[in-house]
Design brief:
Blueprint lengths: L5 E8 L2 E9 L11 E3 L5 E8 L10 E5 H14 L5 E2 L2 E5 L2 H6 L8 E6 L4 H5 L6 E5 L2 E2 L5 H8 L5 E8 L2 E8 L1 E2 L13 H4 L3 E5 L2 H7 L5 E6 L1 H6 L6 E5 L2 E2 L3 H10 L3 E8 L2 E8 L2
Length: 282
């Protein structure tokens, strides 16, 4: 059992912004994560989940999944055998004092929309870049970290009311929440052959990665095994094309590889260099 102090709530982590983590100084080490986080009344308020550490050991900052989030996941798994999450299709950023003054806000609050995905629920609802979302489904959005978790909690197909500030004026919109799709290719041995033939687990680039790499399309390699690993493809590589065909989605990659012969030429970007990697699919 561990004891500690809650120093922040609704924290978004770099690799996970769909869970509003509880930040504590509870000593979490490999082997004791997954245990309960108690309040002073002995009630479970969270599940100790992870730490930020360079050594792999406890360094004073740990994060717990709020118990209400865990309960909702449990209910979905029991009822449907899987977890579904809502999505709007926007890229957002936090509003600091300078941005608040620029957008005519009385104080720094809300989530500033920097881009809207084409054809997304957000675009259909009329959300535009430059809008500041200050309320979602009747609840105030104090900062941008709160919004992804609230949207993810919504059932796909449900309707949510938004309150936004656009060019200094308050406006209400209605958005029908879409469903977040799983973007990874399964590479386990039990997966269908056309899904695991190349031997990579991939996902689309997020907006930050697109800006940093200068690449608008392509898939980030999260894990490489089998033919891909033997050919030298590494975690972090960005797959740009297969046999000269630009890659825009996970489904497209799967389709091209399943139809290919014994050899494919994969164009990847590795840091600032682009190289063709010949892969023997056998």
């Amino acid at each position: 059992m561990t004891a500690g102090i809650v120093s922040a709530k609704a924290r978004a982590l770099p690799d996970e912004n769909l869970v509003p983590f509880i930040q504590t100084d509870v000593a979490v080490n490999p082997g004791n994560s997954g245990g309960p986080l108690f309040n002073m009344k002995g009630e479970v308020i969270g599940i100790n989940s992870q730490i930020f550490s360079e050594t792999g050991g406890y360094q004073g900052l740990s994060f717990a999944v709020p118990v209400e989030v865990a309960a909702k996941v449990q209910d979905q798994l029991v009822a449907h055998g899987k977890v579904t999450r809502g999505r709007m299709g926007v890229t957002i950023q936090n509003v600091n004092q300078a941005l608040a003054e620029s957008f005519g806000l009385s104080k720094p609050e809300g989530a500033l929309v920097s881009s809207v995905e084409k054809g997304s629920p957000a675009e259909k609802a009329g959300i535009e870049p430059g809008d500041v979302i200050i309320k979602f489904d009747g609840k105030e959005v104090a900062d941008s970290a709160q919004l992804p978790a609230r949207v993810a909690e919504m059932k796909p197909g449900a309707t949510a009311r938004l309150e936004i500030i656009r060019k200094g004026s308050t406006k209400e919109l209605s958005v029908t929440v879409g469903e977040m799709k799983d973007s990874k290719i399964a590479s386990a041995s039990g997966a269908p052959q056309e899904q695991g033939r190349l031997g990579v687990a991939v996902r689309p680039l997020n907006p930050d990665e697109q800006r940093q790499s200068g690449v608008k399309e392509g898939l980030v390699v999260e894990d490489a095994s089998g033919p891909a690993a033997r050919a030298g493809i590494q975690t972090g590589d960005v797959i740009l094309s297969v046999n000269g065909t630009p890659i825009r989605s996970v489904d497209q990659l799967r389709s091209l590889v399943s139809k290919a012969g014994k050899q494919v030429a994969i164009l990847v970007q590795r840091e600032d260099a682009r190289i063709f990697v010949p892969v023997d699919l056998g």
